[in-house]
Amino acid sequence: MILLEMGRKRRNTFNTHPSTLSPSHPLFLACFQPCKAKQTGFLIKNGKQNSCANAGWPPSPGYWPSSKFRPMSFYKGFRNLWGPGHQSVDQNALTIWLDRTSGSGFKSVKPFRSGYFGASIKVQPGYTAGVITAFYLSNNEAHPGFHDEVDIEFLGTTFGKPYTLQTNVYIRGSGDGKIIGREMKFHLWFDPTKDFHHYAILWSPREIIFLVDDVPIRRYPRKSAATFPLRPMWVYGSIWDASSWATEDGKYKADYRYQPFVAKYTNFKAGGCSAYAPARCRPVSASPSWSGGLTRQQRRAMRWVQRYHMVYNYCRDPKRNHALTPECWTK
């Protein structure tokens, strides 16, 4: 890519493509401009590629894993974990909220060693900087300071800017001072404050697949036991104040003039092999094949999402020590 600077052409010497950077990054702003109304994505400045022309809704994945699992009531599969006064259930829809006194969280009644875990979620519009709305797997209570975690997190935002959906994987020890995050971040092709959309994690012994409305947005394959969570985990959800890092690396904090910050969950789904299931229990699959993986059509949809809506990929971050994330460069 060629950038213009002081009337001269200057070649981009960064070893990451600008499209993988945060939209607030100076290089991103130098290379891209927002699409016009009713378009999604970004247009490369002074270039030939037009992402807007191909943007919109992703191609059909051709297969819908969520349809294979029945929704459950909140109390059938979950219980309050903290902040009971900031949580309410009405007709199987859960509302949790954060104010200056507390947030709230919930947890599944049983642990799993693999499975499909999803919920339809709607987040609050307006100023939500510093606020995290999460749906995730973890065993942090069973292994404090040495736990595994698989995250879907909505990173709060400021007026006029989109939410960032962060996916992350931690392997053994994310809380012991040696934090190794494996973040991929997205700006979604819709406004998550307008309606409920289904967000899911499919975890098998071979791979982790993150899905939004059944569209795969990320696949994290098992390349070694050292870089993949294998111990049983519970399903969690929460809303909490993460002002120190959530919005533009902590630049914008939670502002409680806008409280309460509300998140709504419904259409809970959790199925697969519990930690107590017999060894013959068959892991779930994101595709029609029981062997796992994604179909060609699902991969096409995932590539579309990552091309037009991914704004950060830890494997492409030159500031990261990739000796600590060998999955980025090993086959």
UniProtKB/TrEMBL annotation:
Main localization (coarse): secreted
Residues of the GH16 domain: 53-265
Origin superkingdom: Eukaryota
InterPro entries in the cross-refs: Beta-glucanase-like, Beta-glucanase/XTH, ConA-like_dom_sf, XET_C
Location of this chain's protein in the cell: Secreted, Cell wall; Secreted, Extracellular space, Apoplast
UniProtKB keywords: Apoplast, Cell wall, Cell wall biogenesis/degradation, Glycosidase, Hydrolase, Secreted, Transferase
EC number(s) recorded for this UniProt protein: 2.4.1.207
Residues spanning the membrane: none
A Pfam family it matches: XET_C
Enzyme class: transferase
Modification after translation: Contains at least one intrachain disulfide bond essential for its enzymatic activity.
Family that this chain belongs to: Belongs to the glycosyl hydrolase 16 family.
Functional description taken from the UniProt entry: Catalyzes xyloglucan endohydrolysis (XEH) and/or endotransglycosylation (XET). Cleaves and religates xyloglucan polymers, an essential constituent of the primary cell wall, and thereby participates in cell wall construction of growing tissues.
Name of the molecule in the record: Xyloglucan endotransglucosylase/hydrolase
Naturally occurring in which organism (per UniProt): Hibiscus sabdariffa (roselle)
